[in-house]
């Protein structure tokens, strides 16, 4: 396949776009097209190997380029997807958790179902908590023989 004729952008323009991109993902996508255009890589496999992609990814990149052009490859990825929740709902969930109203994943599941009308499985709730970096908060263990208020008394005495 003659990639030189199928890729309409010039090598200089592709190199300029490659250097200008701040995201590594986009830079590699543009480099993939530049390698094909310049002839440094004669096949998609060779171009993908040069930038560390597998063959299937290179096929996907070439298809996107053919359908949408270079602009399609330079689109920023849609990161920040939290499943079924909007950002406002995530804020409500975080507030619910800050108020210490949930002790288990089942409590979070019930809250989402009753208040926001969104149903998740327990596994889905677990994955959501991992994505949102919500961790279980537990207090430090206390010795069973410790007298109530003994810590405060010790701190008061040590200040004097």
Total domains, how many?
2
What distance separates the N and C termini? 85 Å
Report the strand count.
Answer: 0
The largest sheet is: none
Radius of gyration: 27 Å
**Category from helices, strands and their pairing:** mainly alpha
User: Average pLDDT across residues?
Assistant: 85
Number of helices: 10
Shape: elongated
> Which parts are unreliable, with pLDDT below 50 for 5 consecutive residues or more?
none
The SSE order reads HHHHHHHHHH
Estimated helix fraction? 55-70%
Percent of residues in beta strands?
Answer: under 5%
Describe this structure in words.
This protein has ten helices and no strands. It has 160 residues and is mostly helical. The protein has two domains: 71 residues, no CATH class; 45 residues. The radius of gyration is 27 Å and the shape is elongated. It starts with a helix and ends with a helix. The mean pLDDT is 85. This is Winged helix-turn-helix domain-containing protein.
Can you lay out the helices and strands and say which pair or pack?
Layout lengths: L2 H4 L4 H10 L3 H15 L5 H8 L3 H14 L1 H4 L13 H12 L6 H12 L5 H10 L18 H10 L1
Organism: Runella salmonicolor
Protein name: Winged helix-turn-helix domain-containing protein
Pfam families: HTH_28 (PF13518), HTH_33 (PF13592)
Write a brief structural summary:
Pfam families: HTH_28, HTH_33. This protein has 160 residues and is mainly alpha-helical. It has helices at residues 3-6, 11-20, 24-38, 44-51, 55-68, 70-73, 87-98, 105-116, 122-131, 150-159.
């Amino acid at each position: 396949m003659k990639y030189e004729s199928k890729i309409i952008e010039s090598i200089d323009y592709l190199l300029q776009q490659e250097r200008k991109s701040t995201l590594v993902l986009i830079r590699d996508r543009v480099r993939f097209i530049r390698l094909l255009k310049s002839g440094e890589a004669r096949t998609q496999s060779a171009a993908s190997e040069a930038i560390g992609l597998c063959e299937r990814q290179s096929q996907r990149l070439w298809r996107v380029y053919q359908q949408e052009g270079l602009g399609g490859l330079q689109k920023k990825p849609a990161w920040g997807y939290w499943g079924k929740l909007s950002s406002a709902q995530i804020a409500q969930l975080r507030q619910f958790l800050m108020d210490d109203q949930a002790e288990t994943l089942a409590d979070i599941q019930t809250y989402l179902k009753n208040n926001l009308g969104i149903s998740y499985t327990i596994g889905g709730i677990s994955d959501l908590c991992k994505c949102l970096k919500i961790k279980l908060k537990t207090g430090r263990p206390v010795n069973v023989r410790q007298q109530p208020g003994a810590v405060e008394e010790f701190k008061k005495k040590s200040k004097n």
